[in-house]
Amino acid sequence: MHRKENNSAFEVICMRNVLEYLEKSARAFPNKIAVEDEHGACTFQELQADCMRVGSALAGKVKQGAPVAVFMDKGIPALCAFWGIVYAGGFYVLLNPDLPPARLRQIQEVLQADYILADRQHSAAAQEIFSTASVLQVETLRRSPIREEALERVRHDGIDTDPLYAIFTSGSTGVPKGVVVSHRSVLEFIDTFTTLFEIGENDIIGNQAPFDFDVSVKDIYAALRTGAKLSIIPKRLFSRPGDLLDWLCDHRITVMIWAVSALCLISTFHGLDYRRPTAVRKILFSGEVMPIRHLQIWMEHLPETQFVNLYGPTEITCNCTYHILERGNSYRTGIPIGRAFPNKAVFLLDAEGARISEPGLEGEICVRGTALALGYYNAPEQTEAAFVRNPLNRHYPERIYRTGDLGKYTASGDLMFCGRRDFQIKHMGHRIELEEVERAVSNLPGVERCCCVFDEEKQKLYGFYIGEPDRKTLHKQLRTQLPAYMVPGALIRCTVFPLTKNGKVDRKRLLEGRRSNEQSAAEKTA
């Protein structure tokens, strides 16, 4: 918020558009490097100018509040496309070129975007996949003249609850869901996030997440707000731990806001024994439950670094709770997801919609506050099912988001994540939380990680693990710790786990691979 004196009175001006972050940093740090990727770098002043050129080319074409798709890999051109779209009054949706064409067409069927922005590398593919939309090359748009009056007219008509971006996630109906997030939600969260974790202009933020994954929102806008440098790490390095560590060290990364699996990639292959990124002062992780052994490896190698566990689904704008790790705490019962961020209410509801406050009782994690997404794009029924009226407030309409995640309070008031409702299975007449089995396997000597998958068709529980013990040894040990019905019927040792594009363990591929192996074995036997 800024105050401007006017005839001895104060006019209060609140930020209502994320472009104000860009413009403020361009004024404060015009010649400072704003973003670097594997192809080059640009200053804040250069970044703003390029975004304004893209916006000027699109202004008048893009309708206010309309979606514009961006079809390219993450990098500086993608950011220019994002904020050029915003300058023109639209909202951006990154369509990852790594997705299968059929999936991309599904998303476009929901989105119905009139324009697709692509770089030269992906322009031909975009024209083939999105045949009903107009494909524009971002290289051409970045050479357009700046039309300040046109951009000012667009800005004048905008408000802070206009959509900023949409991120598509999987949908239970088989159709992708587009989570639409407003400027106000991002402004509110990023202001809090950067203040709470003391991210500033001298930081260098190492971006791991794809731009169609909301972890990247924290990287992008934390840098934009504070004047920090955003270092976009090439995605290919996340299969080469040594080269990845070289980037972290050589680029002097100070802040890592990463998915758990990306951190585990380094610790699994003992990368920190090769080289330590000693400039890193904060590591904030999310997306999955962090295995204790991997956390300990990171904390032992970086004794001065602060580690933070973040929790929150895309629908509540990045995160709603956090827990700062305490050195010396073994976290044998798990790492808490902690307490709510300022100005976010996080609470538990039981199946009847009553509030749960007593420690140890499980309930669904629910969230209310400014940071809630606007809803799912072109999906009113799914929006109404997830963004519901607060059952605790009967006096006026108030929306909350039901996450589908289960949690419980500790005696100290911290929240613990207890798994997904849809990760709760019924096997041999018993209800089982897969996370409980995974934790039991992961705690066994010599096991690095574990992922459990339930095959509904065969009613069989599989435990995939990375580690040294053989499966017979693990079975024997598990039978001493878990009821028989919770011990996986098959334990499969893996070298690595397949990952989704967002850096999470790809449970579907694990199960499909197992089915394929069993089918091949059956055919050979026959």
What is the fold's blueprint, element by element?
Layout: E1 2-6, E2 9-13, H1 19-28, E3 33-37, E4 40-43, H2 44-58, E5 67-71, H3 76-87, E6 91-94, H4 101-111, E7 115-118, H5 123-129, E8 134-137, H6 138-141, H7 148-157, E9 163-169, E10 177-182, H8 183-196, E11 204-207, H9 215-226, E12 229-232, H10 241-250, E13 255-259, H11 260-268, H12 271-274, E14 282-286, H13 292-301, E15 306-311, E16 321-324, E17 339-340, E18 344-349, E19 355-356, E20 363-369, E21 375-376, H14 380-386, E22 387-389, E23 399-409, E24 415-420, E25 424-427, E26 430-433, H15 434-442, E27 447-455, E28 460-467, H16 471-479, E29 490-493, H17 507-525
Parallel strand pairs: 3-12, 5-6, 5-7, 7-8, 11-12, 11-13, 13-14, 14-15, 28-29
Antiparallel strand pairs: 1-2, 3-4, 9-10, 10-21, 15-16, 16-17, 18-19, 18-20, 20-23, 22-23, 23-24, 25-26, 27-28
Structure, explained:
The chain has 17 helices and 29 strands. It is globular and about 75 Å long. Helix content is 33%, strand content 28%.
- CA radius of gyration is 24 Å
Average pLDDT taken over every residue = 92
Q: Helical residue percent?
A: 25-40%
Largest sheet: 9 strands, mixed
What order do the strands of the largest sheet run in, or round the barrel if closed? 4-3-12-11-13-14-15-16-17
Content-based structural category: alpha/beta
- Count of helix runs: 17
